[in-house]
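Example for tutorial group B:
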């Protein structure tokens, strides 16, 4: 986990890593001001955006996994909803606007303290192109997907589920745990 050196509340360096009273997990606790620092999983939200049955993907221009292809996704921000996060990430990474169709996949990744969630979405325009975060943005037909160049396992699984569902033209929400200890 993250190592804390200073208390972000009072600036003291008198932090102790211990189980607080009535708790059951170790937390950083400030001896000066008694603040307890809780760390919780981060949520990554994204979208599988469709345009004439093609899928919008972005080639990552930033680490991790620079140079590999992803569905638009990123860390949820404070003060936004999941759907807003998916639409924002799609715009930031591709330049295009999306409209949510339905929640599609949700993955718990306890080994990295993350939850990944993808929506199915309609791509509303074709204004996509390279951005700060993406060196290339492209619509892929199913048979064009570069399976050996996918950035994240949860992106790959979401694409695989989409193809499976597309076969029978019935799209269902899926929840999955990925445990890599
Ligand atoms: Zn403090």
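The residue assignment follows.
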């Amino acid at each position: 986990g993250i190592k804390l050196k200073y208390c972000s509340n009072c600036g003291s360096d008198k932090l102790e890593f211990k189980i607080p009273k009535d708790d059951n997990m170790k937390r950083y606790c400030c001896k000066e001001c008694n603040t307890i620092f809780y760390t919780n999983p981060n949520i990554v939200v994204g979208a599988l955006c469709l345009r004439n049955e093609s899928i919008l993907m972005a080639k990552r221009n930033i680490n991790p996994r620079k140079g590999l292809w992803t569905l638009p996704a990123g860390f949820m921000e404070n003060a936004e909803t999941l759907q807003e996060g998916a639409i924002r990430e799609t715009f930031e990474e591709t330049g295009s606007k999306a409209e949510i169709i339905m929640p599609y996949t949700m993955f718990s990744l306890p080994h990295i303290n993350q939850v990944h969630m993808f929506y199915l979405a309609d791509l509303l325009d074709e204004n996509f192109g390279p951005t700060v975060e993406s060196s290339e943005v492209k619509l892929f037909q199913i048979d064009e997907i570069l399976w050996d160049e996918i950035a994240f396992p949860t992106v790959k699984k979401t694409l695989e589920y989409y193809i499976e569902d597309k076969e029978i033209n019935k799209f269902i929400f899926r929840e999955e745990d990925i445990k890599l200890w």
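The two ends are 14 Å apart (CA to CA). Compare this with the pattern of hydrophobic and polar residues in the output above.
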